[in-house]
Amino acid sequence: MFGSTEKVAHSLPIKTVGIIGGGQLGKMLTLKAKEMGLRIIALDKDPSCPVSSICDELIVGSLYDKEKLLELAKKSDVVTYEIEHTDTETLKCIEQEGINILPSPALLELINDKLKQKVHLISHGIPTSKLICEVSKEETVAYKSKRKQLPQFPLVQKARKGGYDGRGVAVIRNENDLHKVLETDSFFEEFIEIEKEIAVLVARDLEGNVESYPVVEMVFDSRSNILDMLISPARIPEEISEKAKRIAFDVINSFVLSNLKAVGVFAIEMFLTKSGDILVNEIAPRVHNSGHHTIESCYTSQFEQHLRAIAGLPLGSTKQHSPAVMINLLGEPGYYGKPAIVGLEEILRTDGAYLHWYGKSTTGPFRKMGHVTIIDESLDSAIGKAKRLKDSVKIISEGSE
Asked: Which PROSITE patterns match (predicted)?
């Protein structure tokens, strides 16, 4: 006892955290974990994955390998994800054995099926685009070959499973776009005239406390549909920002009401429509590309926040102390092999610019190889610097000109 208030004494490391996936998100989680005194064990099929050089142990194997998932779980105090694509059935069985998996596998299973996710949002009164219909793989083949007519134009098709980094989504504006139809189990939703794409990062801890970060604005690469530039805070009116945060809290609460363990950081991606409405697009039950700027611009990064939440520690401040812009460094089209950076000097000479290189062994078209965050006293100044770097920095392959 120190004084009159009883305090909890923690030993270090507080937890051994198992991470399903060893990509860049796992690497950034691990970097923060090492600062916090946490041990990290990761599972990834690639022995040279980004997390491999810094984690305490790497289990090499498929994210769908039951034995490898069980090995990871048995060695960890808590298991989490840096990517959704894993075997939720096995994880649910592991959870029943008393191993802590956060967020819960049942929640991950819901989110992994985009149709179930959509129906969940609708059933809980969360504003989202209209669901038109579910379609089987066989039906999509008929639509693509024009043997069957689409219900309407324009519309958006989403694959039920497997979509990631712009894949698994097709915008069908007219008959000339029928070649874009995805031949897979999927669904159609209404096409939305978008003013901006925004996102809210929300963290929830084991005690049920919830915090949100400032709303961010997302600009996507039209060629790859991958996040190209992120601006924080979003350039939207305060009332719109507050409304987006309320909707994000409602999403998290919908999981709680469904008896799903919603613990950790969640990214709620939204559309701000031309008419001023806010519609939830998709949810990621993990740290996310839209929160990378928090490493430099916020008192508590999304990575530290996620670790705090799943380790049973208090949430940190989500206050943003500096305007920030983040640009993804994507592999240039036509380049494969060992990566090389054109314009590295420009990044290092730019005041307030922070380079994050993921350490992937090979580059490819539109592959995420790193990111740069720019913080500044002025958001406009940060945007200007980001645009200049976007024009001058390219990821190619060694030996290329």
From this structure: ATP_GRASP
